[in-house]
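<tokenise_the_fold>
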Amino acid sequence: MPSTVRTDAVEQILAIAERAGLDRAALLARARIPGDVLRGGGGRIAVERLHALWHAVTRDAGRALTSKVAAHARVEGFGPYGFSILTAPTALDALRTATEHYPVINDDGRWSVELGASRVVARWARAGAATAGVDAASESIVAHFVLGLRSIVDGPIRVDEVRFAHAAPRGVRALEEVLRAPLVFDAGENAIVLPRADLDAVPRLASAPMHAFVTGFVRDELARIAPERTFVDHVADALAARPDARASRIAAELGVTERTLRRRLADTGTSFRALVDARRAAIALDRVEHTDDAITRIAIELGFTDASAFARAFRRWHGRSPSKVRDAR
């Protein structure tokens, strides 16, 4: 299933972008987001449109806008998900609730929490190619978590370190000022490192009964948008992380033989080759549409012998040449 994001998150970005002087209609057009899908809130759009919006916004206003979006976000603005965080018994419970149920907001990646004796590490990971829009989205997501935790308690919550998988962008000073924490780029992961003791803090609206009640609604919503995943979904997820992996490698990761993998895919009407082709098509479109990388470089990195072979495949996948897609940005 394609990854999606709640339209509430998109509206937050647009609101701050408008305050910064950017044109809402132009941004929506460049990100190919129909304006009517945002009306009323609570809807969902493909996460690729969110990344395209971030690409357009940061191209016009710089990466400093990611910190502004995070700084103006309010936990209570996310409906039951937000209130399940606000009413958690402790800040650690709030962090666990926020990470476990984050797919309600954005199911493009996953949060995990590692508990140590003296520190807690929360990691945000997603599969697929990195682009300027994806990097900006990751900065905003991580910043939301830091500022959200600090906003729900009266006492201080220190942050020992904030890590980002991508290289440091221009305008990073604004993010440092908002997060008030050491930032590490090219860290190989997106993560927040917090002192364990600070997470014993009790949120101002802490209420175990209310937390349990509201969390039930969040889990119901999560079940609706993230039904049980199929074997094809698991293979596609593995390919998203390693698009050049052989069938034998993917089979080993899923705990089956290569023969079983191919048979189970055939039973659903698809094949390993078709899934590899679909993944390459998605990466190709993302790279052409949202980066300035040379077409030849993209072709070689995706395993093509030259740009001409890549262009032929691209037209087969998307009905247009790479240059036509790039010219339409």
